[in-house]
Amino acid sequence: MSTTFQRSAKLLFTSESVTEGHPDKICDQISDAVLDWALGQTPAARVACESGIKADEHRSWAAVFGEVTPAVPDEVVDRLVRRVLTRIGYTDAATGFDLANAQIVSVLSRQSVDIALGVDQALEAKQGNLSDDLDTGAGDQGMMFGFACDETPELMPMPLALAHRLTRRLAQVRHDGTLPWLRPDGKSQVTVEYRHGAPVRVDTVVISTQHAHDISQIEISEAVRRVVIDPVLDEVGAHRSTSLRDEHTRYLINPTGRFVIGGPWGDSGLTGRKIIVDSYGGMARHGGGAFSGKDPTKVDRSAAYAARWVAKTVVAAGLASRCEVQLAYAIGVARPVSVNVETFGTERGGIGPEDIQRGIEQTFDLRPSAIIAALDLRRPIYEATAAYGHFGRLDLDLPWERTDRAAALDAAVAAVPARA
Q1: Nearest CA to 311 among 268, 340, 278, 338?
Q2: Which end of the chain is more exposed for a tag (fewer CB within 10 A), N or C?
Q3: How far is CA 67 from CA 110, 290, 353, in A?
Q4: For 331-346, what is the mean pLDDT?
Q5: What angle do CA 194, 198, 204 make, to 5 degrees?
Q6: 60-69 sheet: strands from edge to edge
Q7: 332 exposed, middle or buried (CB, 10 Å; 0-12, 13-18, 19+)?
Q8: What angle is formed at CA 338 by the lines to CA 332 and CA 339, rounded to 5 degrees?
Q9: What are the φ/ψ torsions at residue 382 (nearest 5 degrees)?
């Protein structure tokens, strides 16, 4: 987000979230369930797994495809798919997927030996520049972005933080029976008004939620407003000691008037189609690579987590109120080909982004194997990240969300020689 945003007297910004029952999110969770299974077999698992799902009034179908080492038996894939769908709530054809009669297809092969060559031994090691046992290569080329800001307790942009809270609340009141007519598929969208770069009020809340056929639109609107929207906005407003709503805030609940056909019946799903929901809601840039279904040797995932870790540490240390970090890698090369830090003019007085960048380089080792070791990424923790965002998760103890290096980074930046 540019410094123009910071100077704007008034600006509206919108982000969305989707529930765990959204077709694309189903596929993300299936792919990460396969990843977690493989990591449970061996921490050295190599996984690049995608999923697809579709249903209609006659058929329900899911497919899992990609490269996994060690091999995953077909019966394991079948079991994982059915477990994920059962957990979400797709256990009856009326919800949008006929699980009892579903066809589950598995097309998984082993990782390419050509790709493995670059991951197993980095270019630096092949050239005789091996510094330690962490010089293994990146699993692909690409660029990744991490972001943090001081708008919410989770150091995330407020529009996305609110959108995620709303979809999690939708799922909660469905699972606990508070609103038994809710079905798994749903979306939220929140528009926040900013003044001079700070969020001041919620302008519009949109909720589209799948529901049973025998509930009226009036009942849906009243219940969703009372049980979902109001508690979320009140909780966040109480934390800020100021209301996020006023008489001009708009609420659009199932604006088409009907959302009975949903889930895989209403729309097909694929892994990796909700990358903006997964990251920063459009408030920061995105490198383009999806996260789910990829083991941590894939820098699309591990380096994106590291970039968030670094950016959040910058903000937690008070070095800037808004920070975006870009990392870029070449396949088979251990060290990033570039590290870029942008603080949008919000850095603490007397320092600049280049000072923060030099402090980062002294505080964080951003080689893929070093990231994996520091964040302990070779373990089955990923299915839980596949819905409601990979960042800012107060409900999960995710290592890339920790800020225990804030003091070290602050000291490293303070030690940077003054600029001429």
Answers
A1: 340
A2: C
A3: 5, 16, 40
A4: 93
A5: 35
A6: 103-109, 60-69, 46-55, 269-270
A7: buried
A8: 125
A9: -95, -30
